[in-house]
Structures are given as structure tokens and as C-alpha cells.
Specification:
With 354 residues, the protein is an alpha+beta fold. The chain has 2 domains: 216 residues, 3-hydroxy-3-methylglutaryl-coenzyme A Reductase, Chain A, domain 2 (Alpha-Beta Complex), CATH 3.90.770; 94 residues, 2-Layer Sandwich (Alpha-Beta Plaits), CATH 3.30.70. The protein has 12 helices and 10 strands. Strands 1, 2, 3, 4, 5, 6, 7, 8, 9 and 10 form a 10-stranded mixed sheet that branches. A hairpin with a 5-residue loop joins strand 1 and strand 2.
């Protein structure tokens, strides 16, 4: 098949100021999107990050998963294998090492439905997002289990208990990808001058819109305004699997008034990103990884952790700016009209706000 490329406008915003034990730096962030107001809006959040001393971005956990599906004669046999898998994890790791030197088995979880055994395997994957790595490792595990327990039958290499690119509760509960929390404390005076609103209005809107509105809509482990917008733009600019915004956008905003100031946080439990692997060899991706300082010589896994921390901070920048705009009647539509009607063909130039 002939290969061609779809052109997507891309600009850099920032710098975004981050603090913490993963990233303590100011970084320009590339975002590729057709949602043109996303650049100036997120850039306003980036300005806020510098004015307020930095966004604390913390990696809580990291793991990638693949669930295999096997069939046994009955549920009792499924339970037998489920117990054995927990007891024999060191033997499983020996098999996994045949497929990758980076994939390390962290934990296993099982569900039994009738005579079907769903086995969720959780791995650390170094600097890779790990989709292919965990699938290869799961293939090795499955082959070993079928040899050890001959009453088992193969059903699928993926049983949807992973869960990949679908909105489910299990990812938020057990984890899939890198679990990131970004936090910012905004003094009242800066909230009023930069965001054109007050801490009380943002906190109230988060409760009524993000929490109650999402509950009414039947959202699954989500309470945010537009995490998906930022994730899409970031993933596309950095060579990530964009479909992972489905589970990645399952996250929560928490805001409260602390004294006179605004505490604002974005929690993203399922950020699936990597700095090596499929999609990372394109020149523009390499350039953007270099811009973020995510392709340097570091211990295994640290470049991907840095990338995830930057994503968390960037999502916070976009989220706080949008919520602030929505506290003021008409501001959201005015911004869209202004930026979309007057947009030229944008390039990868940086975007600045006075």
C-alpha cells in the first residue's frame, strides 16, 4: 500500500513550569490539533503555571496490561489455574523473559465466568507504552499455561479485561498506563487577573458541571471538562497511539478554596505513553521528544515517566483555563469565533501570551 500523510496543525505552547521529583523544569509543549482555540487556552494555563511557582506533577503508579482468555471444563478447573498462577509467578516471569528483557510481571488478576478464565497480566514496560511488549509476553504465558494445564483451551490473546481503548472501571481501579496527578495552588489575585474569575466560581462549576453533570450522564470514573482534547493533541504530536485517549480521558478534576486561594488538580489514572517503540521514529516526533527533554540518557523508564508527568501538567493547564472561561457567560463561544475565524495555516511555531 502507498503511504501518505495527513497534515495536522501543530504549535508549541508554554513554557509550562513543572516541579516535583519527576520533572523540575520549564518546557515548551507541542500540541497537534484542529481544535484551534486549544492553543491559546492551554497557553493561558501555562502562563498560570509560571505565575504560581509550578505545577506539581506526581507519578503514582505505572503498569501495562493484557488479559488472556482461556476455557476449562468447568469453573472448578478455572479456580485451580487461578490459584496456581498466583503461586507460580516466578515461573511465569521466566517465560516472559523469552519475549522481552524489559517486560516485568507485576501482578495478576482473574475473573471466572462459567467455565471461562479471564487472566489479567500487569507488566512494567520501561520507556515503551508497551502494547506489543505485553501482547508478546502474554503469548508466552498462554503457551506455558496450555502446556502445564492440558485441560485448558485457547480462546483469545485479549479477553477485554485489559482493558484496551474502551471506557471501563477496571483500568481506573487496577491501573493501566501511568497514573499521574497534577496539582496547582493559584493565589486569588492571579486567579482574578489571569483567569478573569474567582476561586469560588471555579470550585462551584467543577462540582455542578464536572461532578454532577458527569454523574447524570452516566460517566465511568470521569469528572472532567475536556481531558480528551489535550490528550489527543499531545499524543498526535508525540507519536503515541491516539486511540488510548479513550481510557486516558477517564480522570477527575478536584478543586477547592484554600483560604483565599484556589487549589486545582487533575488526576489521570490511565496515561498510556512511551518514548520508544512504534510511531517514535518519525523526524517530527524525535524533534518533539527532544524539545521536551524526553530522549536523553536516563535510567530505563525515566524518559517515559517524564513524558507522562508533562502530559499531566499540560492537561491541567487546559482544564483550568476552560473551566475559568465557562464561569463567564459567552466567553467560550467568543474565543472559538475569534481564533477559528482568524486562523491562518498554523505551523509548529511557538505561541506566546503577553
Amino acid at each position: 500500500m502507498e503511504q501518505s500523510f495527513a497534515q495536522v496543525p501543530m504549535r508549541t505552547i508554554g513554557p509550562v513550569k513543572l516541579i516535583g521529583n519527576v520533572v523540575d523544569d520549564e518546557v515548551l509543549v507541542p500540541l497537534a490539533t484542529y481544535e484551534l482555540p486549544l492553543w491559546p487556552s492551554t497557553n493561558r494555563g501555562a502562563k498560570l503555571s509560571r505565575q504560581c511557582g509550578g505545577i506539581l506533577s506526581t507519578i503514582i503508579d505505572e503498569r501495562m496490561t493484557r488479559s488472556i482468555l482461556l476455557e476449562a471444563p468447568n469453573a472448578l478447573r478455572c479456580q485451580e489455574v487461578s490459584v496456581a498462577v498466583k503461586m507460580r509467578q516466578p515461573e511465569l516471569q521466566v517465560q516472559i523473559a523469552r519475549s522481552s528483557r524489559f517486560a516485568k510481571l507485576i501482578n495478576t488478576h482473574t475473573q471466572i465466568v462459567g467455565n471461562l478464565l479471564f487472566l489479567r497480566l500487569e507488566f512494567s514496560t520501561g520507556d515503551a507504552a508497551g502494547h506489543n511488549m505485553v501482547t508478546q509476553a502474554a503469548d508466552e504465558v498462554m503457551a506455558w499455561l496450555l502446556a502445564q494445564y492440558t485441560f485448558l483451551k485457547y480462546v483469545s490473546i485479549s479477553g477485554n479485561y485489559c482493558t484496551d481503548k474502551k471506557a471501563t472501571a477496571v483500568n481506573g481501579i487496577l491501573g493501566r498506563g501511568r497514573y499521574v496527578v497534577a496539582e496547582l495552588l493559584v493565589p486569588r489575585s492571579i486567579c482574578i487577573s489571569t483567569l478573569k474569575t474567582t476561586p469560588e466560581k471555579i470550585t462551584e462549576l467543577n462540582i455542578k458541571k464536572n461532578l454532577l453533570g458527569t454523574m447524570l450522564a452516566g460517566g465511568i470514573r470521569s469528572a472532567n471538562a475536556h481531558f480528551a482534547n489535550l490528550l489527543f493533541a499531545f499524543y498526535l504530536a508525540l507519536g503515541q497511539d491516539v486511540a488510548n485517549i479513550v481510557e486516558g480521558s477517564q480522570g477527575m478534576v478536584f478543586a477547592e478554596v484554600r483560604g483565599e486561594d484556589l487549589y486545582f488538580s487533575a488526576t489521570l489514572p490511565n496515561i498510556i505513553v512511551g518514548t520508544v517503540g512504534n510511531g517514535k521514529d518519525y523526524p517530527f516526533v524525535q524533534k518533539n521528544l527532544e524539545l521536551l527533554g524526553c530522549n536523553e540518557e536516563r535510567p530505563v523508564g525515566e524518559n517515559a515517566r517524564r513524558l507522562a508527568a508533562i502530559i499531566g501538567a499540560t492537561v491541567l493547564c487546559g482544564e483550568i483555563s476552560l473551566l475559568a472561561a465557562q464561569t463567564n457567560p459567552g466567553e467560550l463561544m467568543r474565543a472559538h469565533t475569534t481564533f477559528e475565524r482568524h486562523a491562518n495555516q498554523p505551523t509548529s511555531e511557538s505561541l506566546t501570551i503577553p
